[in-house]
Amino acid sequence: MFTDEYFMKMALQEAQFALEKDEVPIGCVIVSNDRVIAKSHNLTETLTDVTAHAEMQAITSAANFLGGKYLQNCTLYVTLEPCVMCSGALAWSQISRVVIGARDEQRGFINKGLSLHPKTEVTTGIQEYECSEIVKTFFRNKR
Ligand SMILES: [Zn+2]
User: Fold this and answer.
1) Among residues 20, 23, 45, 55, which one is catalytic?
2) Is 81 labeled as catalytic in the residue annotation?
C-alpha cells in the first residue's frame, strides 16, 4: 500500500498545484512512519523568492511538525532531483531517505559531485516519466 510510487504520486499532485499557478511544476512530500507530515510545491514566482523551492518549504514545515530540526526517520519524495541549494539543506536536515522522480542533469546535485548526509539513502527513478514530462511540457509551452 505505502509504496514509493504511492507517495511519489502525492508529490506529483503537488507539482500539478504548482503548474496551476504557472510555477515550474515541482512538488514534494515528507513522510514519517507512513504518514505525510509535509507537502509543498515550488512557489518562487508567487512568493517572489528564489529560495521557495518545494524542498525548502517541506523541510521547514516537517521540522515544525516534529518539533526538532533533524528529519530522522523521514523520507522526502520529490518529483525532480534537488538543486545544490536544496541538497545542502537536506544534508543539514540529516533526513533518512530521499526519493527522486526524474533526474535533473543540469541543475541537480548528483552531477555536481555533491552528496547528502552520509546517513541519507538516495533512490532515483520513481515515476520518472511522469515527473520529467510535467516539467518538460511546462517549458515547451513557455517557448
Ligand atoms: Zn532546489
Assistant:
1) 55
2) no
Q: How far is the centre of ligand 1, averaged over its atoms, from the C-alpha of 2 (Å)? A: 26
Q: Which helix (H) or strand (E) holds 40?
A: strand 35-41
Furthest-apart CA atoms within the chain: distance in Å? 43
Looking from the CA of 37 toward its CB, the CA atoms found within 13 Å total: 20
For residue 27, the one-letter residue type is: G
- Residue 61: Cβ within 10 Å count: 15
Do 112 and 83 meet the contact criterion of CB atoms below 8 Å apart?
no
32, containing H or E segment: strand 27-32
86-141 pLDDT tens trace: 999 999 999 999 999 999 999 999 999 999 999 999 999 999 999 999 999 999 99
